[in-house]
Amino acid sequence: MSASPLPTPAANAPGSPNPPSRGAQVALGVFLAVLLGLLAVRGYGNRFRARPTEPATVDLTDLNSADQTELAQVPGVGPKMAVAVVDHRRVHGPFKSVDELRNVRGVGPVTFEKVRPHFRVGPLPTSPAEITTTSFYPPAPGSAPGPKPAPAGVKKIQPGEPPINVNIASLEELQRLPGVGPVTAQAIITSRTAAPFQTTNDLDKVKGIGPKTVEKLRPFVVVR
User: Fold this and answer.
1) Residue 50 clears pLDDT 70, i.e. is over it
2) Which of 96, 122, 152, 191 has the least C-beta neighbours within 10 A?
3) Which segments of the chain are extended strands (E)?
4) Inter-residue contact 138 to 68 (CB < 8 Å)
5) Which pLDDT band holds residue 153 (cuts at 50, 70, 90)?
6) CA-CA distance, 20 to 96, in Å (whole number)?
7) How far apart are CA 207 and CA 11, in angstroms?
8) How many CB atoms within 10 Å of residue 23?
9) How far apart are alpha carbons 160 and 97 in whole angstroms?
10) 3-state secondary structure of 61
């Protein structure tokens, strides 16, 4: 008696897994591909759109042409150092290099290293006439333009010469007086503009003129 073969489960018998059709497999593959594409775009899209960062152009401040207000706005400078820089220019002339900032009153090594990257020195003047222009000696904010140095050849007044009327004399004429330079001459003009001098003693009210200077001036000045 021969053994009968084992029965083969029916393809659609209850509980047996049904393999997905080829169409379903293709649809699933397409869905996964689209999903991965969306994730890639979201993760790297901004990077693809970003432009290379261009280095910012730094606008350096010219030590010779900047006025007191511009200097004070430079990081690490401030009003006090700005005044010192302007004063240094008036006395010593234009800066030849940024390194000369070390010679400015109140500028130490730490401050110099802090402010040096913000400055430059432009072309220097080529003639004495250019050096005396207000571009190298800018006035303080709210003040009148600063005086220029005395022209070459101005001679001081000598005993016996006619006295100088301090109420009408020009800037150059005032600089002929003993002890009077460009700054003091400008201060005399500023003071007389506010109120004319009534006596020689009124010169004592001018900034930069004390009692000793008044006595030196007395033989060489008149007010009328």
Assistant:
1) no
2) 152
3) 61-62, 119-120, 164-165, 221-222
4) yes
5) low
6) 86
7) 116
8) 8
9) 47
10) strand
